[in-house]
Write a structure and sequence with these properties.
The complex is a heterodimer.
Chain A lengths: L19 E10 L2 E11 L4 E5 L6 H8 L7 E6 L2 E2 L4 H6 L1 E4 L11 H11 L5 H12 L14 H13 L5 E4 L8 H16 L3 E6 L10 E6 L2 E6 L1 H8 L1 E7 L2 H14 L4 E5 L2 E7 L3 H10 L3 E5 L3 H22 L1
Parallel strand pairs in A: 3-8, 3-9, 6-7, 7-8
Antiparallel strand pairs in A: 1-2, 1-4, 4-5, 9-10, 11-13, 11-14, 12-13
Helix pairs in contact in A: 3-4, 3-5, 7-10
Chain B lengths: L1 H6 L18 H22 L1 H23 L5 E7 L4 H12 L3 E7 L2 H10 L4 E5 L3 H6 L5 E7 L3 H17 L20 E7 L10 H19 L1 H8 L2 H6 L4 H31 L7 H25 L3 H18 L11 H7 L3 H15 L3 H25 L6
Parallel strand pairs in B: 1-2, 1-3, 4-5
Antiparallel strand pairs in B: 3-4
Classes of the chains: A alpha/beta, B alpha/beta.
The complex binds adenosine-5'-diphosphate and magnesium ion.
Chain lengths: ~325, ~400
């Protein structure tokens, strides 16, 4: 696990017939390598997360999957079609919700939905639209210009527009950024409802807590996948363990300094009054020893996603440095 | 692993069916998509108050501006008199000319060379030449000729003055000829005015301009409106959405062009009606033919504008490119300068401009009563230009965001 191959972590699908299966996807914009070798396989009905900081290549990858960008390299299939040569066919069955609101701000909610229904050739588009408006509870806003809606409603509208034609594969690019917590929760409930109906959903986010809501996720960093799998798999696979130290604040402060000096691989974070320490599991005993030495109470806990991420990034950066030094 | 597997439902759909279904093949899908696109563009156009206002205001404004330029009777044009006959009738006529206020009598010149220099340098726009023995010949009823030499480089300016002079010939000498020559007042004018147009023998006159304005207005507005069509979507971020739909480049192009066909039609009606009512532009030929060919011209311009918008990266760039076409259209189509008077290379380039062909069509039909057979070649040229730019547009339309 500690050795991430240069092309990123593999991400095998836990099913025989993945809806989406791409390998070694690459894309550069000029000298900027946005995506440098991404492998993803997604199963039918799965909610698959793209987690990663801004600029890590999530949007670029999604655009390549629905044919909006041509990959520089790599290959794969989506919905039974080649992603490079048959992107037109894929597009018919893909719903894509862009990161920034991209419906027509100068059309009303109803007009936007009608447009979406018609371009997808839905039979009885008007009826379908009324039904959707009703289902989403958008009735009060049906004749509002889309540009006048609040962030949360815009997102719901965009989701409705991208799912009107019952796509087999739904790509959602940071659908919950800038949306309040209640709307966020409702949005995730919608996503789960869609997945239960059999839609395969790819959703990107930079909120760590949203990772828990995905069946599996790929962790993007600088155009590569650092880790892939379910949240538990990723945490277990990282080889990290975590301790929670409780005691006098002064004691904990000294403990923090000592741990960081003695174990460079450890991460210490304050969680309220407690000190959360995560270390690779081979260092667990030493960390526990230090805890006891300083008279802090020490309990085992689950490593946090952040710990895992920072740990993986360190390994990755270290590997990149080594590769650079070697060349 | 177990947690995720348990949470995931069984795949309800087989991948194998996913390739089928979806978009219906052929014409029906095409028409449905086109319909979606046209409705969308129409609604957006209707919401865009500024553009809507421009659609009506531009033709009216231009027509009024150009129209007054046409109707404005230029006054006080410099005139020099070359008189070989300092007689009462000659002087009376010169006085009458001055009284029309069309002319400023700048000088009396003695020699033809002097007169020639004046007109060539632009110091005089007219030379009135009174022949020797003018008065005498008038009284003899010989109807002598007065020569008016006009610098017609600007036919709009000289046209009305020239016609004023011709009118004068009939009335001027009424007073002088009272008494012995009274019989000369009956019947034909006592002398003739011969006008020589210099530098612009074709004598393009004011009536020529209104049909031209139809073409200019359609070129300017339609080119600008559609030049933004694609770049606007890109700049507003909606292109990403549009590209992710199953719409094809042809559907997007036609959908974007369609609403403006009506815009162009409205503008044509405004300008032609106003031109006819306000400026008395005749409709000699078939109006139906004119409307049909104007539609062709409208679509050609829209296609050209749309092509620009597929080439430009920003709205500003699109505007600049539109101007890049508009300027030669105004200058090299025969609107401002007579086409026949341009040098060969300019005429060659002019043939590539839709406006050049349209001007021939509309002037031909409105003023000369041209028939389909007369304008067929021009219509064909328009159609070729239209198809060529459409092919370029569809080809150049970026299906991806690369
Ligand atoms: N059209 C583009 N032109 C140039 N650079 C781009 C373009 N799109 C993305 N990038 C660059 O590629 C990198 C990855 O971007 P992106 O895929 O948008 O990341 P994310 O969606 O994870 O925030 C970023 O550094 C970004 O600046
Ligand atoms: Mg992004």
């Amino acid at each position: 696990m500690n050795d991430i191959p240069a092309e990123g972590a593999a991400c095998p699908a836990p099913c025989a017939k993945p809806v989406l299966d791409v390998r070694r996807l690459r894309k550069s914009f000029g000298a900027r390598k946005a995506v440098r070798g991404v492998d993803i396989a997604v199963c039918p009905g799965e909610i698959f997360g793209f987690l990663g900081p801004n600029g890590s290549g999530k949007t670029t990858t999604m655009r390549m999957l629905c044919g909006l960008l041509t990959p520089d390299g790599g290959e794969g299939h989506a919905l039974g079609h080649d992603i490079i040569r048959e992107s037109r066919h894929i597009r018919l069955h893909v719903g894509y919700m862009t990161q920034h609101f991209s419906l027509y701000a100068d059309l009303t909610v109803r007009e936007n939905l009608l447009f979406a229904a018609r371009v997808h050739g839905l039979p009885r588009p008007a009826r379908k639209v009324e039904q959707t408006i009703h289902e989403l509870g958008l009735g009060a806003y049906a004749d509002e210009l889309a540009g006048h809606l609040s962030g949360g409603w815009k997102q719901r509208l965009a989701l409705a527009a991208s799912t009107l034609h019952d796509p087999h594969l739904l790509l959602l690019d940071e659908p919950t950024s800038g949306v309040d917590p209640a709307a966020r929760r409702r949005f995730w409930d919608d996503i789960h409802a869609l997945a239960r109906r059999g839609m395969t959903v790819l959703v990107s986010t930079h909120y760590m807590d949203e990772a828990e809501r995905c069946h599996r996720l790929a962790w993007f960093y600088e155009g590569r996948i650092l880790a892939c799998g379910g949240v538990d798999d990723i945490i277990t696979g990282s080889g990290l363990v975590a301790l929670e130290a409780a005691g006098e604040p002064e004691t904990l402060t000294v403990l923090q300094r000592t741990v960081q000096a003695a174990l460079p691989a450890a991460q210490c974070t304050w969680m309220g009054e407690k000190l959360h320490i995560s270390v690779p599991k081979e260092l667990r005993d030493r960390a526990e020893c230090l805890c006891r030495e300083y008279g802090a109470e020490c309990a085992t806990t689950r490593p946090r996603m952040e710990d895992v991420f920072i740990h993986l990034v360190r390994i990755q950066d270290h590997a990149a440095e080594k590769a650079e030094a070697a060349s | 692993m177990s947690r995720t597997n348990a949470a995931r439902p069984e795949a309800p759909r087989e991948i194998s069916i996913m390739g089928k279904g979806g978009r219906m093949p052929g014409l029906r899908a095409f028409l449905l998509c086109l319909h979606a696109m046209v409705v969308k563009e129409f609604l957006q156009l209707l919401r865009d108050r500024v553009t809507l206002a421009l659609i009506v205001m531009i033709p009216l404004m231009e027509l009024v501006l150009f129209g007054y330029a046409i109707n404005m009777n230029p006054r006080h044009l410099p005139l020099a008199v070359l008189s070989a006959d300092n007689s009462p009738a000659g002087r009376a006529f010169v006085q009458a000319l001055a009284n029309t206020r069309y002319f400023d009598i700048r000088r009396l010149v003695r020699s033809e060379e002097e007169a020639e220099t004046l007109i060539r340098s632009g110091k005089a726009q007219f030379i009135l030449q009174i022949p020797p023995g003018f008065t005498r010949d008038v009284y003899r009823g010989l109807r002598p000729k007065l020569l008016l030499l006009a610098d017609a480089t600007d036919p709009v300016a000289t046209g009305s003055a020239v016609s004023a002079v011709s009118q004068l010939a009939i009335r001027t000498l009424g007073h002088e000829l009272a008494g012995p020559g009274r019989h000369l007042l009956a019947g034909e004018p006592p002398f003739q005015v011969v006008v020589h147009q210099r530098y612009n023998p074709a004598q393009e006159t004011a009536i020529n301009v209104v049909p031209g304005i139809v073409g200019i207005i359609l070129t300017m507005t339609l080119l600008i409106f559609t030049a933004m069509a694609v770049t606007r979507e890109v700049e507003r971020g909606t292109m990403e959405y549009l590209l992710a739909t199953p719409l094809t480049p042809v559907e997007i192009m036609l959908g974007k062009i369609a609403p403006y066909i009506i815009v162009g039609f409205v503008q044509m009606v405004i300008v032609l009606t106003a031109g006819h009512v306000l400026f008395g532009v005749p409709v000699v030929g078939s109006l139906a033919l004119l409307v049909a060919l104007t539609m062709l011209f409208i679509v050609t311009n829209l296609a050209l504008g749309y092509t620009i918008s597929t080439l430009a990266r920003t709205q500003l760039q699109a505007m600049q490119m539109a101007f890049f076409i508009m300027l030669p259209s105004i200058l090299m189509s025969g609107f401002v300068f007579p086409f026949a008077g341009m040098p060969g290379w300019a005429r060659f380039l002019g043939e590539f401009l839709p406006l050049t062909h349209y001007l021939r069509i509309i002037r031909g039909i409105l003023l000369k009563g041209a028939s389909w057979a007369d304008v067929r070649a021009e219509a064909l040229a328009l159609a070729v230009i239209m198809l060529t730019v459409m092919i370029v547009a569809v080809h150049r339309f970026r299906r991806t965001l690369d």
